[in-house]
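Could you help me review a protein record that somebody else here produced? My question to you is simply how this chain folds and whether the tokens agree. Thanks in advance; the entry in question is below:
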Amino acid sequence: MHKLALVTGSSRRIGREISLKLASIGYSLILHYSNDYNGVESLKKELEESYSNLQFFSFQGDLRCPTFVDELSQFCDSKCVIVNLLIHNASIFEPDDLTNVSFNSLQDHFSIHLFQPLLITKWFSKQAVKGQVVTIVDQAVTNKQSAYLSYILSKKSLLEATYMLSLAMAPGFRVNAILPGMILPSKHGNAEKFHKEVLETPLKIAPGVQSILSALVFLIDNEWATGQTIYCDGGEHLV
């Protein structure tokens, strides 16, 4: 198996689209999910029907659990596979601010967006001699609003980790980041609000999932690219 990618949070939304794209360019996949069993099995079935020459595995794990990496390592050992592309996509997006931020909220966001991505990357760098890491961050890291305090702080940390890891893991590994803007309406919003906010961006268009997929393929294909960030936001980070 020459090309194997691990996609965290693969069962829905952007993670699902990334998985479909990677399979289309020849990657076998470990499809990580937390609790959406039906979603990941539906995706796995679709992939197996479309790409019979590739292999697809589903792996359940809670990124908030300290034993996640041990369980992942045991899973890969049991399948006799080596991962050479790591996509840190899994995310939560819960509102809080200085009036109601809690230890649990901070712990959940930082566990999923920073702690486990760091520990998974540490494992990744030991089980392969070369490879790539792509972190899915958020263009919101450029603003200082506090409506999603835990979320934004943890994503800011993930971006800084991307820079630090790109240096620490060279020359064998490349580490890059994609920063999406308003790709899809969130569960806390609605379509009307989403389209209104899109019109406030410089390009006045929703970048769509395709912008992330194009950026991902660009980063995978360009061997010079490490420590890079690509905004997929229609210029939203500029305003």
In short: The chain has a mean pLDDT of 95. The first helix runs from residue 13 to 24. The longest strand covers residues 173-180. DSSP finds seven helices and seven strands in the chain.
